[in-house]
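To whoever is on call:

I kicked off a structure prediction for a single chain this morning and the downstream step that reads the tokens threw a length-mismatch warning. I double-checked the sequence; it's 276 residues and nothing unusual in it as far as I can see. Pasting both halves so you can look.
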Amino acid sequence: MRTNSVTLPNWPNLNYVSLPACKLAMDWSRGQMRNLSTIYMTSFGDNIDWDYFTHFCCNLALHPEAIPQLTTLSLAQSPEWDILFILLERYNFRTAADNKMLKSLTLGDTPPDLRKPLQMLCGGKFTDRPPNIELSWIGNVDIIFDESLPGCLECHKLLLFCKYTTAPNRHLAWGLSSSSSSSSSSLDLPVDILGERSDSPLGISRMFGDIPKIEDLYIPTYPDNPQDVLLQWEQRENAWQSLQDFGRLRSCQKAGRSQVHISDSYCPNGEWIDVD
């Protein structure tokens, strides 16, 4: 996790801000940004610190009074879905008269089944949606470690599909024969998705390493209470980071790259939904 941060309270009268993926250095327990209505959080290149987007949503869900007038949130990459749903349910159903509702979201790739529940919440309507644990990677850990199923880590984390195969057959994703995995000297290998050459020891280990067994890793217990889901997010994120050096590719470089707009009156694919 990088250490760069932006101290928003230095500009308390901001209405609109566009900033790179980063931590917001502020006292979240105090309502310091009372005029801020629009946040655009961008990213740089392909190597993205995904935790920044979820980190922001988690803190805002814990302290909605810190930015009470937020109506538009645009994230270059989608946060973890359990955290986003908790955020919308907490932020949009506060009782103070001067509070605004978060009505407009722009996210990365979003599973189709989640779009209408998100749109309903943006419209201020409670709605049925999957349980928090089913929206978390913790609830899908058996799928992540199923060697018969394709997919990079980030697509699995976002409940998306991608074509990349898993170790020990990952060479098939690059069109290589299994006999080639014993030597990299004569292979024309692509650049590794983390920036290392795939013919480096680190790149080769990611391409051909074995997927670990679940019992060999620390998988946190997922809490029942939404407050604890938020408070224990960093613990789960640290456990997620421990998976990065194991069998699956970290990212197919497409996970979450397309943008999906959801608002109180609009759902993707041109579908207008009456939330009344």
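Update from on-call: the warning came from a stale cache, not from the record. Cleared it. Sanity check on the structure: The radius of gyration is 20 Å.
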